[in-house]
Design brief:
6 helices; 22% helix; alpha+beta; Cathepsin B, Chain A; eight-stranded mixed beta sheet
Length: 261
Amino acid sequence: MIDHRADCSAIRDQGSCGSCTSFGTCGAWECNLRKKGVNTDLSERDIFSCSGGVCSRGLTMNAILNGAMVGTSIEKCCPYDASDHNCGEGRCANYTIFTRKIKSFKRITDTNEMKQYLNTQALVGVMAVYQSFMNYVSGVYETLPNDTLLGYHCIAVVGYDDEKGAWLIRNSWGTGWGMSGYCWIKYGTSMINEEMFALELDDNPQPDPDVEPTPPEPTPSPCNHGKAWAKIFNFVPWLLHRRGRFYYMNPNKKNKCGCNK
């Protein structure tokens, strides 16, 4: 059994914004940084907005992972508020000294390779979400007969257990969901085996500098990155009308956010 929960940061709640790709990515990224002794809290808002994310539409995996290569600041420099923002809006003026980047990422489709990676690091995963998943409390989750498909979701995969026949996932719906924010999900359930993503960190990631963020500039300057390529990566899913793929499904607000469409 592999279980990386001890290395993970605190469970977060993305609220009613379709920003699950940023939370799944940052959740795995933070866990892997902590394994290297770097205790940091990455800004989900910064990477989401600068990768072209919009709460009502979500964001593709290619866009968010390429955004991670460009970089994101840390939470205290750009706090999350479950709202749409222009890239750089409200970010601390000295954000560049807090910026974190990954070197690359790899898409994995073989389950044995997924487990090999999980032996040493957390992965980013995507899955289909059915109505029964909203009510998960504990144990090994699997879909029910005639379950209603609500949409698709991004999570961090932080372990596996062959005796249980299940992956251990870290969700972003707060500690009131599941096992204090975590879930065992049966191998193959909810399309979770289809693909996961491994993040390659910097060779020697540095801890957060011992300085405080300075207040944002009065008129935030537009980012020089994250615009043209974000539109390109999101064009095809938009063309195919798959915008619901990365919606966040809040049990109390799923109709409001359009997750059943």
